[in-house]
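Q: What does the assembly look like in three dimensions?
Context provided by user:
Components: two
Sequences:
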Amino acid sequence: MMANVWAVIRREYLQRVRSKWFIFSTIGAPLLLAGAMILPTYFTSKGQEADRTIAVVDSTGVLADNLLPRLEEAGFTAHTVPWTPDVSAELTQQALDGEDLGGFVLLNAETLRSGHAALYVKSSPGLTRRLALKSAVAQSALEAQLTAMNVDVGALLKGGDLDVQLLTAEGGGFENPRFLTAYMGSILLYMVILIYSVAVMRATLEEKTSRIVEIVISSMKPWHLMLGKILGVGAVGLTQMAVWFLSGAIMMLVGLPAMLAARPEMGTMDQFQEFLPGLGLLGLFISFFVFGYFMFSGLYAAVGAMCNSDEEAQQAQFPVMLFIIIPFIFVMPIIQSPTSSMAVGLSLVPLFSPILMFARAAAGAAPAWQVGLSFVLMALAVVAVAWVAGRIYKVGILMAGKRPTLPELWRWVREA
Amino acid sequence: MTDGGFAVRLEGVTKRFGKHTAVGGLDLEVPRGVIYGLLGPNGSGKTTTIRMIMGILHPDEGRVRLFGADADDVRRTKVGYLPEERGVYKKMKCLDLVLFLGEIRGVPRAEGRRRGMAWLERLGLGDWADKKVEDLSKGMQQKVQFIGTVIHEPELLILDEPFSGLDPINQDVLEEIVLDFHAKGTTILFSTHLMDQAERLCQRVCLISKAKKVLDADLKELKAAERRGLVAVEFDGPDRWLQGPEVRSVEKVNGATHLLLHDGADHQAILRRGVDAGANIYRFDLVEPRLHEIFVRHAGDGATGDAGTPTGVPGTIGGGR
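A: Here is the predicted structure of the complete assembly.
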């Protein structure tokens, strides 16, 4: 009967992958994101290079040296021009006549005192560039004033530096980027598991209410239909993630360097690198998705099978939803103290593991044996869910009339 | 006949929903190769019976045999089933839906494509093969679903109210197809409350009322046996003589008056009463009853629906006409 399951998987998969929604969310979303990254780059490189070339006229003699590297950092090409009474007129002429100068900035004693400077340009620079220029001037002024007092202005202006050492039993702490990755990753897991499990519920409900299930069930075992449905929808989820990760990788490896080259004021590659998840973490993400999805999609299929309308399903899914919401509430506290006994205990509960164990593992605070144990427990839970949900599904999918009460459900499970 | 001689055989099948008995101890035998009509008022248990044959419901008692084998073993490939409540995957393309329904009954996709296209062409849907089902009219969707029912060339076709929801032209098309299948040797079991259709198509009928079988017979023999039960009268003068202990109901049909008699009633007594009453009787005819009248006779007061029509028929077949 594998041919039947295969036919259901195939139908479910192709039907979904061809839908407008899937194409948009899978291919459109990364494209939009890539577009947002690459288009500005494209326009800037097309835009006149000369607009970013500015001359610096420093009548104080102490600002230009500090300012030039900062301007380079902010994406300008800058050079100094010595001050003369007629320099403004000359540079204006040069900028307007030629193609190689976008404008000039005048620095004087007032700049040194208050950071006030004057910028003359052919075309107004964008907001980020203007801000970058303004703060570059102000920082240079500050630096020039304070250097005389032996202050390490550069370090201070970067926002200082803080060594964080976490006081935990195991000694190891974790630093900021991992925290963020763990949090974002578990939210994403939460979303994809929920989205695709609910999709299984909706598909089940649709088949039931449209009555096509009567035809399908007269040709195959309910269990095969449920299995095919879950595998088909799951394959769609994996496809979507594969496309996302792949396009994400391309963006990070190709798009990001290109963007940073064009807009250096946005930061350096190293700064971004800190936040990027590694391959191991991606593998863990996919594994937790697969196990989490198998548990929840089974439960959601059972919910879909026992209901007769969307409204009913909205209510009936709540108990199942709790098992996704509860770990979600605990994500934050658990990432903050990932080695507490509460964190270890909760993250080993199979229905909680996909979110909580992933969060701990991503934060680097879960020993390998705990992660391994959680997968063993989840595998057992998948079998248990398949057994219970399969029985509820079998009875429910052909049952019209009111939603079963808990005792009735239990009878379905026993008698099916 | 041996078990295997029957396409369908139900033995003492009972199905209860709570305290309500939907089907009670039903025995049913559908010989191979016949067109078999399952008749009965709404709520009489027709659909429940069909659902048990299709394995959608499980009988509380009794058993279902198909082609002399356990129903579950042969159902998938040998039976085509059109449920009463039509269901389709609305978002699928017509041909894809047909292919899928064939695939789950063991028709390879290439073969399914060939057969599916041929059927779509035959039913005038050739240009719609690549259109989504939801873009089709209700009647067209029903045709697509019918193609899905027969795509695996079943030996037994089970159609639950197949004619409901079809316009007269498409009712004729479907009738023609059913007769085609019959000519090829396919057994056809269908339920209906449309007596005209059943009368035209069926060789055997089974009448169910209130969860029980009240009649199960060859249609020709049945009609011959029932011949004495219906009298068509045309007359002038008083009409009170029409009422009497023999007469079950009086109905005007095409200018004539049809008297439906009780079993074993003496029609001569009615005639004598008419002559005595001074009526000028110029037609007094024992006619072959229409299935409709046989039905009403047997379903009797058990038939639900709009009882008490203007002509005084005690029970008509309720239904969604």
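Follow-up: Chain A has two domains: 49-157, 175-415.
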